[in-house]
Amino acid sequence: MVKVKTFTTEVKIFQTKKELDQLDERVNQFLAGDSISKVISVSDCCTTDNTGATIGLIRSVTYEVG
Asked: Among 1, 18, 30, 64, who pairs with 38 as Cys (CB 3.0-4.6 Å)?
């Protein structure tokens, strides 16, 4: 069965590297903790405020179970 899991993080100026590392760790823990047989895709998308500045990140993981 194919499923999609979405992870989000807020992006703050001068803290982006730390926030991306934390997001990577959350995704890796999810993938290691479930019975995932195959990762089909990983996709990142930025969210912006009304000025166009990036304020967050959405990471979608499409995977297959069992």
From this structure: 64
